[in-house]
Predict the structure.
Amino acid sequence: MDANRNSQPRLSSKKSTDILKYGYDTRFYSADRNPINYEHYHDYYEVIFYLGNKNLSYLCSGRTYELSRGDIILCSMFEPHRYFCETNLSYDRVSVGIEPGLLLHFSTEDANLAWIFNRQNQSYPIFHTDAFTFSKYMNLLSDYRNLHLQHGQHAVQLAIIHQLLACLYSDCCEETAMDSAEARRIALVSNLVHYIDGHLAEPLSLEALSESVNYSVAYICKVFRETTGDTLIQYILKKRVARARQLLTENISVAEAAERTGFSSYSYFYRTFKKLEGCGPGEFKAKYYKIGNVSDDLED
């Protein structure tokens, strides 16, 4: 499938369902076929631990960075980014997705963990580590991966994620007090994303979103645009198309994908899908299964 069919960054939704359910998602990638050659963004925060033995170029918000083994990529929500490689055959990595509400929950008055992903953090977006520091993170990730508990699996995983974030804050952030205004903005965006995700198949009006978070329409529109770069309407459409794209890769029919993502008519679904993806949903599905993609949606 032509990764360049649409020059606009794509909203990637492969992991967002699990992240919104549990607050986090961790995936370990070794040598396999996993295309990662298009610009995209997420509606959650992400930390990537790069384990590859070859250098890799990383584009973030228009600037290119060179990665080497031991680098930690810090990616804020709604931050456009991409990697320059065709497959994952030489680029092992561990990806940790974090829901913004969980990040706030883990924060304290003297440790605003959202600062990890702030552009003013001198280590953002690439935290270069030494061997000793990186081994600390690898030990924590090894503990995470080797968990096989009959009871309390998520509780222990959450504790390890919390420790990872605390270590990142300690290692790469200046000491800063919690900015209550920033925390409120992140919490508001998190609540809006949760509500939209849970009601995607239903009509979604700005008034309903306003009522769900108990703020005015003008205020939620302003905060969401300032925080994410998208208007709420733009985000809802992109989220619906991203979810439809994922459903189509699971062999759901085009008509059902349109219905399950809240489009009021097939013609509206077709026009929106083609505008954002560069081809119609039927063509997208046919191309996907013709070339046998392992995953059209990035799992980075």
